[in-house]
Design brief:
With 121 residues, the chain is an alpha/beta fold. It contains four helices and seven strands; from the N terminus they run βββαββαβαβα. A five-stranded mixed sheet has the order 1-2-4-6-7, with helices on both faces. It has a two-stranded parallel sheet with strand order 3-5. A hairpin with a 2-residue loop joins strand 1 and strand 2. The longest helix is centred in the first third of the chain and has 17 residues. It is globular and about 35 Å long.
Length: 121
């Protein structure tokens, strides 16, 4: 299943996945995005995945669950996941569920990419 609102750029083992959708609420969008991100983790051993959600204003608990599945897929391949550009109101959802300890968060994708280049896996 392809995801028409996901733009992926690869920099060796660093993968930038930009989500170009304001609302991640419907099951079809969540499924296609999750499958596309997990496919990136499966394709790249020791992936450093940066998910840029700057354009996302709303996401469901099901989408957060899918992000946890993406994190697990990255861990299996000895990789890591960062979420960039998450709005403060959405970050609260991660803090309430204590999932803020699972992911690395950054204000923007470029700062994480630079950090990953300095500290490769």
């Amino acid at each position: 299943m392809s995801c028409d609102f996901l733009v992926v750029q690869r920099y060796d083992k660093i993968v930038l996945a930009e989500v170009k959708k304001e609302r991640l609420l419907d099951p079809a969008s969540i499924t296609s995005l999750g499958e596309a991100l997990i496919a990136e983790c499966d394709r790249t051993a020791k992936i450093s995945l940066v998910i840029d959600v700057t354009e996302v204003g709303y996401l469901s608990s099901a989408m957060i669950g899918k992000l946890v599945a993406v994190h697990k897929a990255a861990k299996i391949s000895k990789g890591r996941v960062a979420i960039a550009g998450l709005k403060p109101t959405l970050l609260q959802m991660f803090k309430i569920t204590q999932l803020d300890k699972l992911f690395q968060f950054a204000p923007d994708a470029q700062s994480v990419i630079l950090e990953y280049k300095r500290k490769p896996l």
